[in-house]
Each structure stands twice: as structure tokens, then as C-alpha cells.
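hiii so my PI (J.) wants the whole complex modelled not just the main chain, which honestly fair. so below is everything: two entries, each one labled with what it is. i double checked the lines twice but i was tired so who knows lol
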Amino acid sequence: MTILTGKAEARRRLQPDRSGVLRKIWEHRSDYAYVLPAIAVMLIVIAYPIYYTIELSFFNTPPGLQLRDKIFVGFDNYVAILTSPVFWRVTSNTLIWTIGSTFISFVLGFACALALHRDFLGRGILRAILIIPWVISAVAASYIWKWIYHSDFGIIGAVLVGLGWADRPPNFIDSVSTVLPSLIVVNIWREFPFAMIMMMAGLQTVPDQLLRAAKVDGANAWQRFWHVTFPHLRNVSTVTILLLAVANFNSFIIPWIMTGGGPSNASHIWITHIYELAFGRQRWGVASAYSVLLFLILMSLGYFYVRALTGNERKDGSE
Amino acid sequence: MSAIAETAHRGQARRSMRIDGWRWGGRIFLVFMLLYTALPMVWMLSTSIKSGFAAMQFPPQLWPDQPTLASYQKLLDPQNSVGQDFLRFFWNSLFVSTTTTILSVIVAVPAAYAFSRFTFPGRNFLFFAVLLRNMFPAVIFLVPLFILMRAIGLVNTHGSLVLTYLTFGLPLAIWLLKGFYDNIPVQLEQAARIDGATRFQAFVLIVMPLSAPGIIATAIYSFIGAWNEYIYAYTFLSKNEQLTLPVGIQRFFSENTTDFPGLMAASFMMSVPVVVLFLVLQRYFVRALTEGAVKH
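here's the output for the full assembly
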């Protein structure tokens, strides 16, 4: 199931199966020295927080994080979440945000990768420019776009008015109906380059002979793409889409800085809502319960994620 | 003969027209994407060289008649308070990001090597845990880490940031580096072992130099991640003199929300180091990022 290097595999073969787990661990004691520092850091800053979040989700804590005064409330926090109308609002926002951003970023990034696949003058520069939004800070991106959407001095509003398509500049991010799509446009701006990079790397692995053979057999450009290129990129597409979906689901900076979740929760997604519950309203227990639910959702997504990531290893593994 | 040749010729013409259609479609699409990508950045630059008055004109000018570097001068001037703050935020970001990068590389290099080469019990579970961490948002860890940092007295110190930045820096570094080690032939180490090197010596003398591009890429990735990090810094730090850039410029302009040229100049200055770093070293970087996902 795993990649086994030649030496490691030989060692495994030499080892009789009857050896106990402890003995095996002891035999590999020097291997652990390499991973120990990493594991130690991860235990402190990852395992402990997860445990603590689960514990806190069953308690009510007074504001100010006075943890000595916390009261056990069982599943009350979870019930409170699932019966709150805000929960459904925020959940539908999260779905629209995650699916919309992921799908459009992937399609745009893939299309860019295809268009940039053939060499032409200025390709390198064009590619570099297209990647930049992904590298610059999300905070800077949020301010740039906030300025672009500005209801008095924003450039988009000014262009719309100039063309006579609007009487006055629209309130892109101050209006309930347009805020979420407007933020998704910003998010896609930052994310499509990632899909582009991944798909460009994937395209390089599509064998030329296959494409030429298809051409000789009379397949047109679309057929070559659909029957040769695309199936070949299934693996990298899956990984890219999953990574994008997880990143979008976990977004914080763009909605938080641009709108703070407003107006009237129209741009609150799970993550910003949890943050506001914890550090804004100091409802640590409810925020922790939310985090546990989030954790469960991500764990199930994680199953597919790890399978997609290690799937290609399995293929050239020992089986 | 002529009829057949004509048909073939016409067929070819039609086919090349169709191919041209694809090519032109691709070009138009690329121009559209270029505008979508570049216009916001041009707008940031152009606003940053406007005077406060010019930024508030309607209709706005795409490029100002009288460009001015006043906003940049203000940010870089250690004599006035805005410049003092900005330069301090800049150094704080640099310090935190560099420290995080060095620590992640030191811890991740041996761990990634072990995950790539050894088959110790628990290896799969541990690697699974490492991969899984990449999926969890900072927010989940925020409350407990805040409590933890408060308990060990690291709230309001850069140490709290470095330690928490390792939570996302390490798993990513391990994953990226493992991809590199997987591609280095194990025979090279075996040859060194036959020549009498210990396993550790083979690792340090043979594998590490070969994986230098991977280490560089991983370091850039950690650096950019730490440089752009916002939520932990926003939560853990409260004193003005400790803030990093992303949080700093927010504090800065929340008092004066009309200074858009200043805000755009600060956004630009904040982006320059990472964009330059990325563009110079993008070859390594892109390779590291895609290594694991596209190999087959």
C-alpha cells in the first residue's frame, strides 16, 4: 500500500511476521529520531488544541475566558447551533461561496493552462502576471478590491455610470443581494492562478505521441482534449479541486476584511461566523461546538483528500 | 483527380479554420484574464501615486495627471509617526517570517526524509495526520492556542506567532519535501553506504545537497505563508509596536479610511517582497508545489 524503497522493502522481507509491535518499534528507534521534532511540535500545537476544542464545546464559559467558571452543559451548544436561523443562512452562504469559487477558479485556471500550453512570444511574462494575485497577501487584495468596489469612488461603478448602464455607482458590497457574488469575484481573482499552475504541470505529463496519434486518426481539437488530455489529467484535477475546495471552505481574510460578514450576515461564512462568536461575542462554548462540527466535515473531506494525494503512490507501489 | 484533391483541400482548409478558431478563442480568453488579473493591480499602483484629492475625483482617472510619490515618502520616512509604524511592522513581518522559515526547514527536512525512506510502525498514520493538518483552518485552533499562549506567557510576543505558524508551515514543508526525496534515487545513498558512510552521513552529504532546490522552494513557501498570515497575528498581538504588516496596515487605516493612496501604497509595499521572491525563484517553487500531485 505504500511506497517501499528498495532497501526498506528488503528489510521488511527479512523480518519475520511474528515479531511484536513493540519489537518492531524498537528496531526502528533510530527512524523516529528524524520525525520526533516534527511530531513534538504537532502534538503541542495541533493535537492539544483539537482535544481542548472538543472539551470546551460541552461547556458554557463566561466572557473573558474565565475558564475556572465554566459550566458543563452537555450538548446544549450543539442544539443551539442547529436550531438557530443564522446557522442555515451561514451554511448556505458557505456552500455558495465554496462551490462557486472552486468551480469557477478551476475552470478559469484550467482554461489558462490550456491557452498557455503552446509556446508563443511573451508566454513567460504573461504567465508570471497571471500568477501574481495568488502570491500577494489576501489582506492587500481585500483592500484593493474594496477600493475598486467603493460606492462613491470605485472604478467599476464609475465605468458603469460612464457607459450609461447605471444612474449611480452600485453598492456592490453594501447590498445583501450583491455582496456574496462580489466577494467570490475577489476570491477567484486570488485562486485561479493556483489551478493554473497545477494544471500546467499536469499538461506537461500528457504524452505527445498520444495526441499525435489521435490527430492522425482524425480527432479534432475538442475530441483530442476530451478523449486524451482530460482523462489523463483526472488525478491532478481531483487534487486541485479538493485543495481549492478546502481552501475556500476555510477562507477568512477576504470576507472578514471586506465586509466583516455583513450586511446582515449576507457574507458570513462558517469560518468568519465562528471567529465572531468566539472573539467578538465571547461565546467560546458555541464557537468550539461549531469548530467540532467543522472538524467532522473536514475529516470526511480529508478522507478523499488523502486518498487522492496518496492514490498515485499506490499505483507504483509494491503491488 | 482534381475533384478528390479539391475535397481534400477544402477539408484541410476547414480543419485549419477550426484550429484557428480555437487559437483565437484562446487568445481572446487570455486577454480577458490578463485584464481581470492586471487591472486591479494597475488600479492599486495608480491610486498609490495620486494625491488624496485626486483619488476622490469623479470620474476617476485611470492614470493621474500629476503623479506623486508622497504616500511612499510618508510610509518610508522614519521621522514621522506613520513611517515609524510602517517600518516597524515591516521589520516585525520580516523577523517573524524568517524565523518561522528557518525553524520549519530544520524540523521538516529530517521528517520528510524519514517519511520518504523509512517504513517504521505508525508511518502511514503519522503522514496521514500531517496531510490532514493542511485542511484545518486557523480558526479551529485559535481559541485553544490563545489559551495555551496565555498560559505559557507568549501572548503579545512574536514567539506565539512563530510557534503557531509552524502549525501550517510544517505539514506543508513535510509534504513538499517528501515529494522531492521520493524523486531522488535511493541507489545514490546505497552507493555511499557501500563506501562506508552511515545512514545519517548519506542523508546529510548526498541527499541534502541534491534536494537543495526543494529546500529553497519549501523555504519560500513558508516565508510567503508567514508573511501573509493574518488571523493569528490579529488575535495574538495587541500592542502597536509588535504588529506584523497585514494587521498593522489594517490598524493604521481603520482610523483614517479616506487615505486610499496611503492604503494602496502600503498594500503595494507589502506585496513587493513576496512577489519579487516568488518571481525570481518560481521555477523551484512551481516544481515543488506540483511534484506530488502530477507524478504517476
